[in-house]
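Same chain as my last thread, 199 residues:
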Amino acid sequence: MQTSEPSPQIAVSADDALAEQVKMLEGRIARLEAQMQQVREELPDNRVSIIVFSGDLDKVLPAFIIATGAAAMGMEVSLFFTFWGLNVLKKRRDLAGKGFLEKLFALMTPVGTEGLGVSKMNFFGIGAKMLRALMKSKQVASLEELVQMAKEMGVRIVACQMSMDVLGITKDELWDNIEVGGVASFLADATKSKITLFL
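reply #2:
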């Protein structure tokens, strides 16, 4: 019994149809890869951005606890200090060359981490001393230790240029090697961050 072989014309048509399907699938795969690339580009980086607006000990502490914790987890961290938060970064108080209101602000605000009060029940600094004593008794790292850890872990610390200008704070008054930047500097980090906080 003889079997009939498919005609060359039918075989060519089947090959053409298969080639067309392969071409369509390749097109779909290329479009999906382009969409996946776009999604990857829009995903935030493994980054945390924190605005430190407050100059209160009990609010600055969480900023540095979160910053060091995130850095320990391998995240990139930036702390943007603005207005009263700038007091944290001060290493000294300069009055020379300042106007009357700038001098008043300088005299009325604390210098550095050790001069920070607490937001509730400060009682002329007694509240802050009590909080520090409690932290020490519970073997919790002090703010100064957290600051040192943050620096060693590569946490980016930025002082707000506009706030410095408004309050008459110069870069010389701040910690050494502090970066000074504006809102664009913060937003550049924040738009790429998984987590953004305001403290």
